[in-house]
Amino acid sequence: MTPGATPPGEPAGRRREVLRVLRTSREPMTIVAIAEALGVHPNTVRFHLDSLVGDDQVEQVEPGRKGPGRPPLMFRAVRQMDRGGTRQYRLLAEILTMAFAADEDPAAKARAAGRAWGRQLDSSAEPGEAQTPDKAIGHLVEVLDQLGFAPERRRAGEHQQVGLRHCPFLELAESRTAVVCPVHLGLMQGALETSGAPVAVERLDAFVEPDLCVAHLELQEA
After folding, report:
1. pLDDT: is 147 or 221 the higher one?
2. What is the domain extent for residue 172?
3. Per the domain annotation, does 4 fall within a domain?
4. Phi, then psi, of 43 in degrees rounded to 5
5. Tally of domains in the chain
6. I need a surface site. Which of 98, 163, 167, 210 has the fewest CB within 10 A?
């Protein structure tokens, strides 16, 4: 291993320390100055700076002084939140579902939110693109597939259905069925409304089988 190089398996925390030093400095810093602040070899700092610059978290700046000799490289942190940090989207989803659940009529509110989102999802559809029930249902299946619901077209006698074999929000749906499932119902209703076809989602039966939810479709009179 090259003297001063970053040892294999060095904690990723070292990179965060380099970024922290630059963030707390009012002025751009040299590699040597950063290394002295952390008590590490300059090669270690240089290794992590390459990654930080590549991720647009740190930028190289022109040296402020001019004089004989080659001026040292100067770096400063890009003033923004760390986009490589931890995400807590599930926590956000739990907070929002709790807020909906506290409403006087959580199912209606959740369904309305889902319907609005469903319309937005399908807002790019060309007018008249899916005017027949068959085309509209096929388009709905495509939308649900893109969202990760693993949909499948089904029939129960003369009635058409869409089975959902996967729930992208499974843990929340199991604990907050009264909120999450109406959101899914509204989403499907909103997506179909934009097609203008005479078909609608009448209801959604959740977990009719351990691995299946069923959306019941209804043909409407023109």
Report:
1. 147
2. 89-219
3. no
4. -65, -35
5. 2
6. 210
